[in-house]
Each structure stands twice: as structure tokens, then as C-alpha cells.
Amino acid sequence: MERATFGGGCFWCIEAAFEELEGVESVTSGYAGGHTEDPGYREVCSGQTGHAEVVQIEYDPDQIAYEDLLEVFFTIHDPTTKDRQGPDVGSQYRSAIYSHSDAQLETAEAFAAELEQEGVYDGIVTEIEPLDTFYEAEEYHQNYFEKNPNDAYCRMHAAPKVEKVREKFAENAVAND
């Protein structure tokens, strides 16, 4: 098993999308990239801790490649908007990739550069840096979309990301009965 850590706005939306993929064993919502030890949700939302809302993905590289995770990541959020995703505004919603190895760092940097070069995006602002510390979010944030599918925020923002993954990455999607 390997791990990948991404921030692309509200972690509820990103978590739900990645849970759709075959080879992804678990997705944990949390916080990374800040300067406060063991922050809580309210602290992170204040913008004072420096953390981003992120998800940490545990995946089987024999079933899904890190590059595939990067493709999904760049597809389900806007990597050109600084400190904002949809209605969520603040540095805690920034686009970020926190690498777990030098190989992941190099792969993520090359992947973003290629997207720019190919004209897929213009002005990617995604932070790409080594992961320092990951702090797991409070329990009520874990599997939030699954637990709250009728929540208005989830219906408007998480559900479309889940559908996009099911449609665009059907070959990697978990069978949905």
C-alpha cells in the first residue's frame, strides 16, 4: 500500500470522489501544510493555522497508479484558483499536493507542468511540496458524503464530483450495484 495526500477544496467533496476508485483502500479527511500542532476544524476554518483541508488516500499501486490519482485530482477541482474552490474561500481550501516521497514530488511536478504545456490549464496554482504532518479530521468529517447524501452542500458540490469520476474514470471506478 502507498499513500497520497491532496487538497482541493472541501475535503468532503474530494474524499467522496476518490472513494469511487478501484484500488483505493481508504480515504481519510484531515489537515496538512500548516504550522499549528494538532489543529481542529474550527481552527483550520479560521485560516490562522495555515493548514489546508486534505484527504489522505491509501491505495494499492498494483491496481491504480499515482498518475491516475493525479489525473482524478486535477479533474475534480480547479487548480487555477488560489485559495478558493466553488463557494469555499480561504487558504484552507487551496489546491495542494503533499508528496510522501521524492518520486511522488517529481511525478506531481511533471504532471502539473505537462497539463500547463498541453494547455489543459493556464496558471496552475497548486502547491506541490513534501508532506510534513497529516492530522486526521474529527470523526464527523469522515465519510461525510456517504453519511449525509441529502445534505444540500453535498448534493450541490460533492455529488457532481462523484458523478464526474464515475463517468470519466469508469474503467477505474468501483462497481456500483
Question: What can be said about this structure in brief?
Answer:
This protein has 177 residues and is an alpha+beta fold. The chain has 6 helices and 8 strands; from the N terminus they run βαβαβαβββαββαα.
Describe the structure.
GO terms for molecular function: L-methionine:thioredoxin-disulfide S-oxidoreductase activity; peptide-methionine (S)-S-oxide reductase activity. Helices cover 34% and strands 23% of the residues. The protein has 177 residues and is an alpha+beta fold. The longest helix is centred in the last third of the chain and has 17 residues, at 152-168. The protein starts with a strand and ends in a 9-residue tail after the last helix.
What is the CA-atom radius of gyration, in angstroms?
15 Å
> What's the arrangement of strands in the largest beta sheet?
7-6-1-3-2-8
**Largest sheet properties:** 6 strands, mixed
**Tally of separate helices:** 6
Beta-strand content estimate: 15-25%
Structural class: alpha+beta
Distance between the termini: 26 Å
Report mean pLDDT, rounded to a whole number. 95
Number of domains: 1
Order of helices and strands: EHEHEHEEEHEEHH
**Which bin fits the share of residues in helices?**
25-40%
Shape: globular
Could you name the CATH topology?
Peptide Methionine Sulfoxide Reductase, Chain A
CATH superfamily, please? Peptide methionine sulphoxide reductase MsrA
Family: Belongs to the MsrA Met sulfoxide reductase family.
Function: Has an important function as a repair enzyme for proteins that have been inactivated by oxidation. Catalyzes the reversible oxidation-reduction of methionine sulfoxide in proteins to methionine.
EC number: 1.8.4.11
GO molecular function, one term: L-methionine:thioredoxin-disulfide S-oxidoreductase activity
